[in-house]
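Blinded run. Sample ID left blank on purpose so nobody reads anything into the name before looking at the predicted structure. Input follows.
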Amino acid sequence: FSLLDEWEDRYRYVIELGEGLPPFPDEGRNPANKVAGCVSQVWLITEYGPGADPVVTFQGDSDAHIVRGLVAIMLALFSGRPASAIQETDAE
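Blinded prediction complete.
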């Protein structure tokens, strides 16, 4: 984001990231996968690999363009990593 000086460019970039998310399965849009407390609708599917420090994979989607982009950022930071690495990540 530091390469983009204007907030409008950053906003557009976040939306573009969301457009690049893989398709979310329709059956994943259910109450069990819905993130509570969001103004927008957000769904998150979490899968755990085997072992004491499983690799955790996420799939996510939202009905709002900007939130979908934020979900894409979250997936880039956390999905496909061991649980211990996720816990140690400082997202800021």
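Unblinding after everyone has recorded impressions. The domain at 7-88 is CATH 3.90.1010.10 (Sufe protein. Chain: A).
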